[in-house]
Each structure stands twice: as structure tokens, then as C-alpha cells.
Predict the structure of Myo-inositol 2-dehydrogenase/D-chiro-inositol 1-dehydrogenase.
Amino acid sequence: MQRFALIGAGFIGTVHAQNLAAHPGIEFVGIHDVAEARAQELAARFGTRSLSAAEVFDPATVDAVFIASSTDTHAVHLRSAADAGLAVMCEKPIAPDLAEARAVVDYVTASGVPAMLDFNRRYDRDHAGLQRVVRKGGVGAVELVQMSTRGPSLPPIEYLRVSGGQMADQTVHFFDLLRWITGQEPVSVAVQGSALVDPSIAEFGDVDTSVATLTLESGAIVEIDSVRRTGYGYDERIEVMGSTGLVESRRNRTSNVAVYGAGAVTEAGLHPGWFERVQPTYALALAAFVEALEAGHPAPATLEDGLRAQAIAEAATRALRSGRTEAIEY
Amino acid sequence: MQRFALIGAGFIGTVHAQNLAAHPGIEFVGIHDVAEARAQELAARFGTRSLSAAEVFDPATVDAVFIASSTDTHAVHLRSAADAGLAVMCEKPIAPDLAEARAVVDYVTASGVPAMLDFNRRYDRDHAGLQRVVRKGGVGAVELVQMSTRGPSLPPIEYLRVSGGQMADQTVHFFDLLRWITGQEPVSVAVQGSALVDPSIAEFGDVDTSVATLTLESGAIVEIDSVRRTGYGYDERIEVMGSTGLVESRRNRTSNVAVYGAGAVTEAGLHPGWFERVQPTYALALAAFVEALEAGHPAPATLEDGLRAQAIAEAATRALRSGRTEAIEY
Amino acid sequence: MQRFALIGAGFIGTVHAQNLAAHPGIEFVGIHDVAEARAQELAARFGTRSLSAAEVFDPATVDAVFIASSTDTHAVHLRSAADAGLAVMCEKPIAPDLAEARAVVDYVTASGVPAMLDFNRRYDRDHAGLQRVVRKGGVGAVELVQMSTRGPSLPPIEYLRVSGGQMADQTVHFFDLLRWITGQEPVSVAVQGSALVDPSIAEFGDVDTSVATLTLESGAIVEIDSVRRTGYGYDERIEVMGSTGLVESRRNRTSNVAVYGAGAVTEAGLHPGWFERVQPTYALALAAFVEALEAGHPAPATLEDGLRAQAIAEAATRALRSGRTEAIEY
Amino acid sequence: MQRFALIGAGFIGTVHAQNLAAHPGIEFVGIHDVAEARAQELAARFGTRSLSAAEVFDPATVDAVFIASSTDTHAVHLRSAADAGLAVMCEKPIAPDLAEARAVVDYVTASGVPAMLDFNRRYDRDHAGLQRVVRKGGVGAVELVQMSTRGPSLPPIEYLRVSGGQMADQTVHFFDLLRWITGQEPVSVAVQGSALVDPSIAEFGDVDTSVATLTLESGAIVEIDSVRRTGYGYDERIEVMGSTGLVESRRNRTSNVAVYGAGAVTEAGLHPGWFERVQPTYALALAAFVEALEAGHPAPATLEDGLRAQAIAEAATRALRSGRTEAIEY
């Protein structure tokens, strides 16, 4: 039985609270939030209690901390968990600034506590199925990868302004998937992008529609398109072509119902938003961390993985601005 | 908040215990089983307690009873719930014998307690999507219905010997779906069947592979094939052709991953067994009953629905033996 | 080089003329039609000439006759071909009356001329692919067969009145496919049908929507649904379940174009009519006959095959009227 | 009736000979080839005759010339057709060198003869369906285009050495499709590529696996991946995302047959080679040219279209070598 405390009682904290409460191998010790009332309300819903900041990091009652607070607080909580000798699972990113993130990872690594970054998309049923095919050689040597990450509608401009840009905010999840699927590091990246949905995005140097092209160590080529607003729902798709075949993680549909009419067949569409598609992945990621803790194995997605995805995103952001192919430095 | 007690701690009781514990509008009072140790073990797993038979039907502490005990005990528990004035949700069937089932339904109905039969397949995402299309006229007037219910492997012969036959044990769920999808009553049925998988099934007058053909009030025609052992997984499929189009609830696949090789594409297969496919439906059925209770609405699937499905199964069993088209008497 | 003469310059004669002209191993000698002007016009279009009835059966200039004239004339032309010692390919049916058809087949068989009945659906790309899987044991022993034959719109009532009924006019093609796919003879048949599209069809004892259920020698069960008017295009579908798997010849779509919109994906529909789907099969059937002639092999679909499909249709028509399972007598 | 002469009796000339012979509105005057015996043989097969070079361009007997000879002879034949005042349909490319191609196009255009470049992929059923959806606004304003052009196996190195490179030899067809589908001109292009299949390709500065990223006038972004050897057949796929939806021209399969086994469904694969997929497009392109000639309309794909696709390919080749985004100059 692992005793977990949760930090953060917002939208994503609520998702994690549900999973912490439901996992049979977890004792859900309590929830801390800077807004205490919010922590109390959420705690009541899942039969646990509100914690102070000090209680969260008390090794007498807590084995592991789940950090789901606002992005700018991840680093400090990671350091506290390391100081207290607690296992820690953390939402992305480690820290908005790459240099700071590196410092935190060094600190936590030196402490020796088990730490996992919540790259939940690795637990998408279909992406995981594709990864298994690729890693066991089911399509031969990887030669060409195509990924699409497309949201249904533009987030608010105020959010986008502080998001770090499309590469760091949206594409970064696919930079991680790419490393995980291929087992290779990308060495360079070029990006072409436009602000097609809302030209005001260009004012702060960002884009809403882009294509990143990466080259892997082996010379294999990768294209990742990122879209902020599709008009047709939430769309993720991956295909990996190798020397002997191709494997595809197809667009997900919301049902298997089809209506045949004169001249056309109307089938179920994509999910309306990202949450409807990725919801099952959070519980699976948590279960994987618990399993690793119980077995004494390394976490399936490490802070180092987080750093590397962030380093790719930083190079991609540079490439978008320079218009040139940029080398990726880890 | 509805206070539920559960009767039965076997396989299906365990499924219901999980859903009773997870439903935010349910207080899970406890579990009764003839094997008390089993009830205690299950109760411990879900943070509730073991109940005596008397405690289950105590209106001071219980609002609703969920009957998931062995088939031959459903009738007596239904009567007890009625006597105690408790709402009741019951696994199929009401009673193995149709006449006895009718008597129980009359008794419970007279008592006025809310009662729902757990026709969980009505909560299958795809079948439910198809039903909505049909009932809102999306394919015009129903003219031809095709249903497949096919299990992956033969149940044990000892089970089959007392199961009541393929029509009563397997096809009956689709007799209910048929009534629910079309909003019509079938008036006659003919059946052709064979014991192809295991000829010893024929010794007790049963079959493992069959086609039932029914005629609805409107003259629309229905074919339902039932198979005990497919060799390729658990297979359910429904299509409804109407005067203006066709709607299909397709075979479900376990993922959206496909591997393209020379000359062939290998895609994900069907579910290995029935439980993998229908698992999500139980929680949805329970939630629908709770919603009806809270709103004071009639249960979405009544005991009367159960009787009617059973009456069709009985006529189908007669038809299988007579080789003739049999009228269905409700 | 095989020298072919064609009898019949109507719609289907025109289809065959095109294929006779295009086949590199055929010398297209000419066309006969009772309406000579029509034969002349068609002959001009394909660079051949109009023939008298006598010229068609002249072994000095003709090796093979293709009979595509009206149904009631097939028998007499088959006898003439036999008398002249010419190979003969004939449109279905041999003769509307089964006894007469038997007499013609005996006569032609006794003459020893190569003869093929144009069961063109055996050359449908997908149905043929399914047949190969079944016959090489790809799904094990056949246990359950499901076939759908559904036309887009009701033929004229005057046509239906003299068509011989849905079993003989429409379902008969699938009785042949069934024998060809399974390599087995059906032994009995039951049929349920309704006149749902136009009740006046019932006045002459016919139906427009029906389900035929057959049992094969092995005990395997077959369901064939036949529909005159779908509302959503021309629909053929076959699936064969065996002891180890299932093979499906899916609905054909007119393209691979799909439009993803909010909440729904609109895909290409079915063919508007039968001809759009089956058109490629005629040339393939002709080519198969020519190949058999050149190699001295028996025709891939014999007149005897035609008799047997007709015998099944006759039993099915009896079953529709009697409401009972009827034995099939070949 | 249009009187056509064909130049070239090789593989692609044979394809065109077949279509010229089959088109009801064409009188197939004859065939010229530098190897006269080859012309004679092909002419005999399609009931026409061998022509001298002079006879091909004789306006007394010929209305239109189809140029299907070797690539380096297109330019001279185009000029001859212009001199003779004959309509001309020409295989791609106009001339290997862009400057020379421009000179030829100016020459032919000045002569006023109707001229069409055989961009046959515009007549692919599915790509054409997609184009119609895009051009009538079915997905809103174009924002992101994804195209895949992937051959099954590496052409001989000797061929690749003189092919002009992957952009000019393979991707060029998709540069044309891109302009035709979107109705826009690309303004810049960047390319990343590798020689993964055969490193010796890199010796002459070429690649076998590449991704070209283009920006259209509107800022819309395009990614085109080109692959010389897939290992899983011939693969073309296009999707166009617009401001309101997405339209997809899916991978083509060779049949609609699927086999369901334990754990997997095996479906039909892609075409073994390019010819199996594109074969029907040649006749459709020819028919479109004849229709334009008869109606006095401009050709549906002009020599100018050819120049523009070639200009994009030239910029893409520069971009592949420079590693930079290159402006496209028409």
C-alpha cells in the first residue's frame, strides 16, 4: 500500500484525485491546495482530508507526492519531495525554463527518490500498441514517422500569450512520444508555422498551425503537425514506416455506429476535446508508477525524459524563429 | 443518496459491488451471500460490511436491493423486496419458469416498489447509438433487422445442460434488444439450429449454432444468429434496415492499431470474451436506475420487459423443436 | 482465337458485345437479334456485322455462341447450339420452368458441346476472394453463412408480376454463390417474407423483403436476406463463419474519400445500382469461359449448376407459401 | 471523331495505345517509334499501322499527337506538333531542363495549338473526389495539407542516377496535385531527406526518403513525404485540413475481404505497384482531353501547369541541398 498526498485541487488535480481514490494499492492520505477551501471540498468528495504544505511532505504519514499544482510551482515541490525523501509523480513541465528544469532534475536525481513525469499519452491504448509493434521490430528499422496533434478549438489568447509557444505547450507531448516510440534521439529540427486562426497570435511570435520536421540519429525523418483549432474535433494520429512495413495508430471515433443513406454513409466523429480521448490514460500512468514503486523498478517516464522533450521543444522554437534547421542540444 | 444492499458475492456480484462503491449517489450499505465468508471478503475490498438476510431487507437502513445471487433465488428475493417496500434491481432472469416469473412480476407490480431488470446490453455505447437513430426515425420504418450474438468458446456441458437452451440462455438478451430498438413486439418465430461444435449438446435437445427468424407486428422481418463458439473472439453486431436507410452497430475491435505488410493489413481483433466488451454497461445500467429513482420515473427496463423477452425465448425453443413457425404469446 | 457470335442486342447484349470486342482471344463474328436494325446498330459500334439466325449457328464461321436474348428464348438457342456442335455461353436462366430446364440440360449435355451458364457474380472480386479463403480452409469447417442481396429500388410491378417471384428472380444468384462458396448442397429451406414496399405485390403471392434460412448437408446454417428497395443503394454482403474464424466480403463503397466534420464523418456510399457494382464481372466470366475452351477444361459454371440453383429457388418459393421448412429436390 | 497518332511504343506507349483504341470518339491513325518493329507489333495488336515520323505530323490525316516517347524527345515532338498545327497530349516532363521547358512552352503556346500535359493522377477517383470537396469549400479555407507518395521498391540505381532526383522524378506529381487541389501556388519549400534504403544514392546527391514542407500564398502549410521503397506496397494518401473540417483520400486496398481470427483481423493490403493503382487514370485523362478538344475548351492540365510543377521541384532540389527554405520562382 502506497500512501499518496496530492498537491493541487484544480481541474487536473480533480482527475488525479479520482484515480488516487480508486486505485486499490493506494491509501489516499490527503490533498493540499493554496486555496484551502478547494482542497477541503475535493477531499470530502473522495473521502480524504485537506493537508497543510508541511503535512504533504511528512514522511511519517506519506510515501509519495503527486504534484498537480500550477506549472510555476512544480520545481519547488519537486525539491521539497527530494528533501523529504518521498517518491514523486509530477505533471509536466518540470519548470518553464530549461536551465531551471535541469537544475531541479539534478537536485532530485542526486537525492535518489523515485520520480516520474506524467507523460500520460504513453498510456493511450493505441499509441502504446503502436509503440510495442515498433520496439519489437514489427516494421523493421524506423525510416519515416508522421504524427498529428490537433486540438478542436483555440485556447484563450491570454493563455497562449504565456504558454511558451505551440512547440513547448502542445507539440512537446509528441516530442516525448517520438523518443519513446523510436528509442532514438532527434538530432535536428526545422519548423514552418503560421498564425492562420488568429493573426494576433503572431504578435507575440507564436503560431497556431505548424509542421516540425526532425531527423533522428539514424537519419530517419519525422514530421509532426500541430494544430490549435480543427473544426472537426480532437485529432491525434501516428504512423511509423519502417524498412519492412508500416504501423498506424488511427484517429479515434466516438462509436462504431454508421448510418447508410443515399450516396453517403455517416459515421461517428472524433472526440469533441482532448480530455474525452486521454481520460483513461491518467489512471494507467498512475498504476504504472505504483507498480514501479512496489517492484523497486525505475519509473517508466523519468524527469530526464521531461528534460529531453523540453530541449527538443526549445530547439523547435528557435527553428520556428530562425527559419533554419537547428541542432538539438540535450 | 440511495442506500443499496447487494445480494450475491460471486463473479457478477463482484462487478456490481465495484459499481455500487464507485457511484457518487449511492451509499453502499453492505453485501449478503449464502457463503458469509465470501460476503465478508468482498465487503472488505469495497469498504462496506457483510449483512444477514434480514438486514438486507430492513427499510430502516436500506432503500434499494440489488439481486445478483444465483438464478433460482431471484424470485424469492424479489418478493422479499416487495414485502419490505424496497426498490429492487435484479439480474436476469426473474425465474427460470415463465409461469412462475409471471406470478412474481404480478406480485412485485402490485406492491408498487420501483423495479428494474438488468438488461445491461441496452447500455452498450454502440447498440444504444443505433437505437436512438432507429427510434427518432433516422432510417424510416423498420423493415429488416439482423443481429449476431456469438460467444468465443463453448461453456461447460454441465452448464449448458441446465441453461434452458440457447434461446433462453443466450438469444434472450437480443430478444430484449429487438423490442427496445424497434419499439415493436414480435408476433411469430421460426428457428433452425444444429449442434455443430459438440454433438452431445443434441442429446438434451439443444443446439450451439442457430438462426431465429421473427416477424414483427408491422410485417418487418428479423434474423438473429446465435453462436456458442466463434474461434475469433466475442462478436456482437446489429443492423436495422428501414424504408430510407440502414444503421449498423459494428463489430467492436480492441484497438485502432493496424500493421501494413506486403499484401495484407493486420488489424486489431475482437474482444476475447463477453465480459471485456460488456463491462462498461453495468455501471451505466445502475446509474440509469439511480437516476430514475431520484426523479421518480419508471425504471428504464421493467420486469415486464423481462417477461416478454422470456416469452419470446419460450416460443423460440418450441419452434426449434417443432420445426414450424410458432406464434408468440405474451 | 475463338470465333463468337452473339444473340441479343438489348441492354445485357450490349454489355457482352463490348466484352466480346475487347477480348484479345476472341474474333467477334457478329450479332443476331429479332430486331435486325438493333443488331446492325450494335454491330456497327463494335466493328462487326449483323447475322441471320442461320449464320449464328454455322460451324464453318462460328466456334461459340453467346445467348443474351430474352429469357424465354434461351432454351431453343441452347438446343440449336448443341445441334450445331458449337460451344455456348448462356445468360440465366436456362428456362423459366424447372422441368423444361432439365430437359434442355440433358439435351445439351448429351451433345457434348462445352456450355457455361453466366453466373457472373462468381467473378465479383470480393466474393471470389472470400470463396478462395473458404475453399482452402481459411476459416475451418463452414458453420454459419450470412448473405445479403438488396436492390436500391423496386422494379416495375409489371416486371415483378412475371418475374417468377423474389426467390427465382433475385435470391437465385445467391443460391448459386452459396453452393460455389461452400462446395455443399443445401438440403432444406424455410422462408419468411413480407410485401412491405408495395402491398400490391402480395396480390400475386410475392414478397419484396424476405429471409431464407437453409441447412447444408453438414448441418451448417445459412441465412439469405433479399430486399427489393433499400433506400441507400445497391447492397451485397457475404460472411462465412467456420470452426476457426470468419471471412467477410464487405459492402462496397464508391470511393475512399471521407469528410471529417464536427461530430460526424461522412464517407462515400454504396453503388447507386446493381450494374455499377457487377459490371467488371461480365468480362471476367467471359474470359474464364474462353480460357476453359482453349485448355479443353470443363466450364467453371455449368448448366447443371444453373439447374441446382433453380431447384433451390423452387423449393424456397414453396416454403414461402407453405410457411414450412421444405426439402430441396435436385 | 479525333484522329490520333501515337509516338512511342514502349511500356507507357502500350498503355496509351490500348486507351486510344478503346475510346469511341478517337480514330487511332497509327504509331511511330524509333524502333520500327516495335511500332509495327503494337499497331498490329490494336488494329492500326506503323507511321513514319513525317506521317505522324501530317495534318491531312492526323488531328492530334500523343507523345509517349523517351523523356529527352518530348521537346522536339512538341515543337513539331506546334509547327504542324496539331493538338498535342504529352507525357511528363516537357523537358528535363527547366529553361528549355520554358522555351518549348512559349513556342507551343505561341502556335495556339491545344496542348495537354498528362497529369494523370488528377484523374484518380479518390484524389479527384477530394479535390471537388476542397474546391467547393467543403472544408473551409485550406490550412494544412498532408500528402504521401510512396513506391514499393527502389528503382534501379542506373535509373535513379539520371532521374533528376527524388523531387523532380517522384514528388513532382504531387506538386501538381497540390496546385490543382488547393488552387494556390506554393511560395517556398524546405526539404529534409536521407538515403536510408541504399546509401550509394547519396553519392550522386539524391535521397530515397524525404519530407518537403511548403508554404502556400495564404500561409497554409503543406507536408509531402516521398518514399522510394515501402516494404508494404504502393502507398498514396492525401488529406486536406481546412478551417471547418478535413477531407481524406485514403490508402487504397486491393479488396474488401477480411478474415477474422483469434486476436487479429487480416484485411487486404495495398496495390503491389504504382501501375495497378493508377491504370484507370490514363483513359480518363485522355477522355478529358478529347472532350476539351470537341468542346473547344482549354485543356484541363496545361503545359504551363507542367512548368510550374517543375519549378517547384527545382526549388525543392535546391532546398534539399542547401538545407534552407528556398523561395519558388515560376
